């Protein structure tokens, strides 16, 4: 039983770090768009494209749910988040950030749409623990990610962080 709790703690930490990275990237993409002399409409597009695309992507992934395992989707979400972060680090124009939001929306759709199912499959005899790991991990990850992203933006001298 102790091994189960250590495994659960490890998964929770991984999920928290994933959510941290995702949420700090959200902050930096809008700040980066404004710092690249983009217009206010560019910043609005960067923020809203992800929000508009994640629900349709969730529906598509839900339809493919019987063909693709939750584990495969969560692993692919890690690679998608890594690719998104790499694009953010080398982007030189607002249009690149806008196009990268497709990756961000895909990552968010996988984590939000399949995250709870993934943890429930890992702990089939402990539905309360799997739910607690998912929700608490995502809340802590969002909190730390937003705070960390804002602190990094402040330290880097980015003025407009939304």
TrEMBL record:
Stretches that traverse the bilayer: 45-65, 72-91, 97-119
Membrane topology: Multi-pass membrane protein
Boundaries of every Major facilitator superfamily (MFS) profile domain copy: 1-162
Keyword Cell membrane: yes
Keywords: Cell membrane, Membrane, Sugar transport, Transmembrane, Transmembrane helix, Transport
Superkingdom per UniProt: Bacteria
Cellular localization per UniProt: Cell membrane
A single Gene Ontology CC term: plasma membrane
InterPro entries: MFS, MFS_dom, MFS_trans_sf
GO molecular function, one term: transmembrane transporter activity
Sequence similarity: Belongs to the major facilitator superfamily. Set transporter family.
Protein name: MFS family permease
Organism for this UniProt entry: Paenibacillus endophyticus
Taxon lineage: Bacteria, Bacillati, Bacillota, Bacilli, Bacillales
């Amino acid at each position: 039983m102790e091994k189960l709790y250590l495994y659960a703690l490890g998964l929770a930490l991984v999920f928290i770090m994933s959510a941290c990275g995702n949420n700090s990237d959200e902050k930096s993409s809008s700040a980066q768009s404004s710092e690249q002399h983009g217009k206010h409409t560019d910043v609005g597009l960067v923020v809203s494209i992800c929000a508009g695309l994640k629900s349709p992507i969730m529906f598509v992934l839900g339809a493919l749910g019987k063909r693709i395992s939750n584990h495969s989707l969560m692993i692919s979400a890690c690679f998608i988040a890594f690719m998104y972060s790499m694009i953010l680090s080398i982007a030189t124009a607002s249009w690149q950030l806008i196009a990268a939001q497709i990756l961000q929306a895909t990552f968010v759709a996988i984590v939000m749409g399949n995250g709870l199912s993934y943890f429930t499959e890992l702990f089939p005899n402990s539905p309360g623990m799997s739910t607690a790991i998912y929700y608490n991990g995502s809340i802590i990850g969002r909190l730390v990610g937003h705070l960390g992203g804002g602190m990094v933006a402040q330290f880097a001298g980015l003025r407009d962080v939304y």
